[in-house]
């Protein structure tokens, strides 16, 4: 019984983070399942089965709050489903531990870029009127889906920073679209695991516990992402990516830090830098709002050049139920 309660609480916390930052549900939940002795394939299968329900609820909540771009959902979600099915089949037959450091290094680079970019310069709005191309979204979805299935999580850590870095979507719509499209990925990954493994090693009570926690948190997270300024959200996402992937690299054969105290010190320093960065972003955002610029100041627009698309995230979000007009 204590394990079931713990899983429900982890599902709640993981979905709260995932629904507001666009990542971390799979990583958080899979980490716990591995820690209590579940094999990688069964852990990923358990999490993805739970995600069918949590991503459906999260997507509906994000849609209600105007956080979803349906064109992006389809263009990234369908290739993502293909990649997830392939990844689930692959993981069921082969360990991917050797590939984790490579992917972690790529994600760490993206995380550092986002953390520095959003903390020091804020939200770029001058490209948000430009559409995201299929030739960018399709390969991104394919890779992110494969990583998500093989790693027990990865759809958000791969997809969210890539879309944020493009500068062509509002952060809240990046998070909402990634969370909504993950429903397709979760279904495809679950089918892949069930075809390859059957129900072997999957505890459906654990699936239900994770699901219940996630369903409770989904609407709260969708509301939260609509209220968090883009500059702050970008810094927060960057910090999550840097912290998570630094931990993976420290434990890999590449780095081989066997001393847990050394690992703890490194992660603690990164956490302090992350907290300082988010604090800086909050203060900078408040300063810009007081000056009548919001996130606009970060991209070089002066107070005499406000455009409708450049309104602060909070103001734009509260002005219309469907989000800012384009």
From TrEMBL:
It is a multi-pass membrane protein. The keyword Zinc does not apply. It comes from the Bacteria. Keywords: Cell membrane, Membrane, Transmembrane, Transmembrane helix. The keyword Transmembrane helix applies. Residues 300-326 are annotated as: Disordered. It is found in: Cell membrane; Membrane. It holds the Pfam family TauE. InterPro entries: TM_pro_TauE-like (IPR002781), TSUP/Inactive_protease-like (IPR051598). Residues 313-326 have a biased composition (Low complexity). The chain crosses the membrane at residues 72-92, 98-116, 136-155, 175-197, 204-225, 264-285. Belongs to the 4-toluene sulfonate uptake permease (TSUP) (TC 2.A.102) family. PANTHER family: MEMBRANE TRANSPORTER PROTEIN MJ0441-RELATED, MEMBRANE TRANSPORTER PROTEIN YTNM-RELATED. This is Probable membrane transporter protein. It comes from Cellulomonas phragmiteti.
């Amino acid at each position: 019984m204590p394990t079931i309660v713990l899983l429900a609480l982890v599902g709640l916390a993981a979905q709260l983070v995932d629904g507001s930052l666009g990542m971390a549900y799979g990583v958080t939940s899979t980490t716990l399942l591995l820690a209590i002795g579940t094999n990688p394939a069964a852990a990923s299968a358990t999490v993805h089965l739970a995600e069918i329900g949590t991503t459906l609820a999260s997507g509906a909540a994000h849609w209600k709050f105007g956080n979803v771009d349906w064109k992006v959902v389809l263009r990234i979600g369908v290739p993502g489903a293909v990649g997830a099915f392939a990844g689930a089949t692959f993981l069921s037959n082969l360990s991917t531990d050797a590939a984790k450091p490579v992917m972690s290094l790529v994600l760490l680079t993206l995380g550092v870029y986002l953390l520095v970019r959003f903390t020091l310069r804020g939200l770029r709005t001058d490209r948000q009127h430009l559409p995201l191309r299929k030739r960018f979204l399709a390969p991104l979805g394919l890779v992110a889906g494969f990583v998500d299935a093989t790693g027990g999580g990865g759809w958000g850590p791969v997809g969210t920073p890539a879309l944020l870095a493009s500068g062509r979507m509002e952060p809240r719509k990046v998070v909402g679209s990634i969370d909504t499209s993950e429903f397709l990925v979760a279904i495809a990954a679950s089918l892949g695991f069930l075809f390859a493994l059957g129900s072997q090693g999957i505890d459906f009570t654990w699936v239900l516990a994770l699901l219940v926690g996630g369903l409770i948190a989904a609407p709260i997270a969708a509301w939260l992402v609509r209220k968090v300024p883009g500059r702050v959200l970008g810094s927060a996402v960057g910090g999550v990516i840097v912290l998570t992937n630094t931990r993976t690299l420290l434990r890999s054969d590449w780095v081989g830090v066997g001393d847990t105290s050394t690992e703890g010190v490194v992660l603690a320093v990164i956490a302090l830098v992350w907290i300082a960065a988010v604090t800086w972003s909050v203060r900078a955002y408040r300063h810009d709002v007081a000056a009548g610029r919001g996130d606009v100041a970060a991209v070089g627009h002066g107070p005499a050049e406000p455009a409708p698309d450049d309104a602060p995230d909070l103001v734009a979000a509260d002005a219309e139920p469907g989000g800012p007009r384009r």
